[in-house]
């Protein structure tokens, strides 16, 4: 079964701030201010860019506590935990240097076009959102296949820019980690991929007017997703949703799968798992979709009301939820919209 560990780096859970977030971004090496740096809350549509003086300001109305992300071509991405965010902060950025190991270059048996095709399918997905998405700067991608581990790796020298014409978003994705692990030394995807890791920061821009077709599509992408599942854990609204649970072919109650308790602060809850593996069903219309969760280590994760969970490597999703990719991704500030037919 193909599984996915799919995460957006959105960590940091601290007290909420009501004032504007402002500051200056500069080059640590030269001390000069950096113009055009993206400053945003990870995996949301809330952000801005620095001006000619390296200055930025964001009105912190978003009731969340995700990391602040600072990104610019040629620099290492900076993330700031929420407790350190304030007014007039100075943020230093280091230049980024990346080299593919020489041994990998010698051993790589596949062409760039072959690897790029796999990257597109695994990164964007094969849903309607995925096949209707286009990466605008593929030349920035470095792709290599490690024959020792049969793993395809990807690195981007700049945030990946893409247009999702199905959900109506422009996305800048700062890729931190991308891996596709194969069972054999082959890029064949069917019955050959056993793990996909997509790890990074996303900034969304809404590129469409408020049309019913996009609202419907976004609603459908949300329902039954990992984000929907984690939000339901937070809300405890199992009776109002369409999730079900089973273990070893027997239907179980949610309380048999895990226990939810108060977190370290008002913005988090702890989820303690009672089972190492169980299945989740979600009924969408007349169809029922099945997913699985494997607990890879420990027994507790932390969640918030927007659909975040940490640590991201602790859960392994299989089945329907494992098919979600960037083409299906919605911002944390997404809310279901009632559409009048």
Task: Give a written overview of the molecule.
- The protein has 341 residues and is mainly β.
- It has three domains: 10-93, Immunoglobulin-like, CATH 2.60.40.1120; 102-206; 213-328, no CATH class.
- The chain is built from six helices and 23 strands.
- Strands 1, 9, 10, 11, 12, 13, 14, 15, 16, 19, 20 and 23 form a twelve-stranded mixed beta sheet that branches. A four-stranded antiparallel beta sheet has the order 4-3-6-7, with no helix packed on it.
- The two termini are 39 Å apart.
- Residues 8-18 have low confidence and may be disordered.
Number of domains: 3
The share of residues in helices is 10-25%
Summarize the main sheet.
12 strands, mixed
Beta strand %? 35-45%
- What distance lies between the first and last C-alpha atoms, to the nearest angstrom? 39 Å
- Alpha-beta classification: mainly beta
Shape: globular
- Rounded to the nearest angstrom, the radius of gyration is 20 Å
Tally the beta strands.
23
Question: What's the tally of helices?
Answer: 6
Output mean pLDDT.
86
* Spans where pLDDT lies below 50 across 5 or more residues: 8-18
Helices and strands, in N-to-C order? EEEEEEEEHHHEEEEEEHHEEHEEEEEEE
Lay out the secondary structure.
Elements: E1 3-8, E2 21-27, E3 38-41, E4 47-49, E5 55-58, E6 68-71, E7 78-80, E8 89-93, H1 102-107, H2 112-124, H3 128-131, E9 133-135, E10 141-146, E11 151-156, E12 160-164, E13 169-182, E14 193-206, H4 212-222, H5 226-235, E15 243-247, E16 250-252, H6 254-257, E17 258-262, E18 269-273, E19 277-284, E20 287-295, E21 300-303, E22 309-310, E23 315-319
Parallel strand pairs: 1-14, 2-8
Antiparallel strand pairs: 1-23, 2-5, 3-4, 3-6, 6-7, 9-12, 10-11, 11-13, 12-13, 13-14, 15-16, 15-19, 17-18, 18-21, 19-20, 20-23, 21-22
């Amino acid at each position: 079964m193909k599984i996915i560990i799919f995460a957006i780096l959105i960590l940091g859970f601290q007290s909420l701030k009501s004032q504007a977030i402002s500051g200056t971004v500069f080059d640590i090496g030269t001390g000069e201010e950096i113009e055009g740096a993206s400053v945003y809350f990870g995996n949301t549509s809330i952000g801005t860019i620095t001006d000619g003086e390296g200055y930025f300001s964001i009105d912190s109305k978003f009731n969340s506590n995700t990391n602040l992300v600072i990104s610019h071509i040629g620099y290492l991405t900076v993330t700031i935990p929420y407790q350190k965010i304030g007014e007039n902060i100075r943020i230093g950025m280091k230049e980024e240097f990346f080299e593919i190991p020489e041994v990998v270059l010698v051993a790589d048996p596949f062409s760039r076009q072959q690897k790029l095709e796999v990257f597109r399918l695994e990164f964007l997905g094969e849903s309607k959102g995925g096949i209707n998405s286009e990466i605008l700067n593929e030349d920035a991608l470095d792709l290599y296949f490690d024959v020792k581990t049969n793993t395809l790796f990807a690195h981007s020298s700049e945030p990946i820019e893409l247009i999702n014409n199905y959900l109506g978003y422009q996305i800048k994705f700062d890729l931190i980690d991308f891996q596709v692990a194969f069972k054999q030394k082959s890029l064949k995807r069917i019955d050959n991929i056993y793990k996909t890791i997509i790890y990074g920061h996303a900034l969304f821009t809404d590129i469409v007017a408020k049309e019913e077709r996009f609202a419907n599509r976004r609603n459908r992408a949300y329902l039954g997703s990992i984000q929907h599942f984690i939000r339901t854990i937070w809300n405890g609204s199992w009776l109002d949703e369409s999730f079900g649970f089973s273990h070893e072919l027997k239907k179980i109650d949610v309380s048999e799968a895990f226990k939810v308790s108060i977190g370290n602060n008002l913005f988090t809850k702890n989820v303690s798992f009672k089972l190492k593996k169980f299945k989740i069903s979600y009924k969408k219309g007349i169809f029922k979709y099945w997913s699985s969760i494997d607990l890879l280590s420990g027994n507790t994760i932390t969640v918030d009301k927007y659909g975040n969970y940490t640590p991201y490597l602790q859960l392994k999703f299989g089945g329907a939820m494992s098919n979600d990719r960037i083409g299906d991704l919605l911002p944390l500030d997404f809310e279901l919209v009632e559409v009048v037919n």
